[in-house]
Amino acid sequence: MPRHTLRLRTHGMATISLQELNTDADLLTRIDRKYLIPLPDAQALISTLAPHGRVLQIDQLQAFSYASTYFDTPDLSTYLLSARKRRRSFKVRTRTYLDSDLCFLEVKTQGSRESTVKTRLPYSSADCNRITREGGDFVIERLIDSHILAPSQAAQVAQMLSPVIMTHYDRITMHLPQDEARVTVDAYLTWRDIDVSGPGTRTSSIGDLIVVETKNPSTPSLADRFLWSQGHRPARISKYATGMALLHPGLPANKWHRTLTHELAGSRPSTYQARHAA
C-alpha cells in the first residue's frame, strides 16, 4: 500500500473511477498552478474539498505510486528552453503507474495564455527508460504539430533524446465537478540522476513538503482559492527542471532561485549549498 494513505486521509470522500475521471476531467489542455505546502495544510485542503469533490479510486486504493523518466538532448536543450523562459519549450517523459504497470510516453508543450498541452502515447513499461522508434515518431509529430520545431529539427532532437533524471512520488487525485478541475497531491517526491558518465548516482528529496497541483480549464478552482486564503501562492517548481537544478548545481536556475533557496533549501545537495554560500 502506498505510504501516502497512512498520512493523508480521504476517507468519506465520494470516489470516481479512472474511466470517469478521464471522461469528465481529462484536461490535457489546462492552466497549471503548483504549490509547496506542509503536510497539515495539505490535509486541511483535502478536508475542505471533500464535500465538493471526488477522489480517484482503483481497486480500493486512493493513493498511487508514480515513476517518471525525463529525456533530454546531450546539451540539455529542453531544460535550457525552460530555464530561459522560452515560450516554445517542451518536455518529453515516460510516466509509469507502478500499482497497475500502465505506462505512457508524454510530450508537454506550452499553448496559448500559459496553458499546458499534454499528449500521450500508450507505452510498454519495459521501455520506460528509452525512446523506441514508435516513440520517436510520436515525439516528432508532436513537436511539428505544436509548431515547436521544423520537421528536420524535430527529427534530429528525437534521435538525440536520452534519459537524464527519474522521479518517484505518491499521488492522490481529486476531481472538482463544479470547477471542471483536477487537484493532485504528491508526497515523498524524490529525484534520481541517470547521468551514467558522472561519478555516481545523485539523489535528492523534497522531504516532508507536499506538492499540490491544480489543473483548471481557465479560472482558479476552489482549491486555489482555499490555498490563497491560507497564505499560499503558486510556486515555481518543475519536477524535471527543479530536480535537474538540485542535482546539477552548475546549470542556470534563476527561474527557480526562490524555490531552491527557500522552500527546498533543505533538499539541496551540499555542493549546491557550497556554491551559493560563496
Automatic annotation (TrEMBL):
Q: Which InterPro entries match?
A: CYTH-like_dom_sf, VTC_domain, VTC_sf
A Pfam family annotated for this chain is VTC
CDD domains (UniProt xref): PolyPPase_VTC_like (cd07750)
**Which named protein is this?**
VTC domain-containing protein
**Highest taxon in the source lineage:** Bacteria
Q: Where is the VTC domain?
A: 30-248
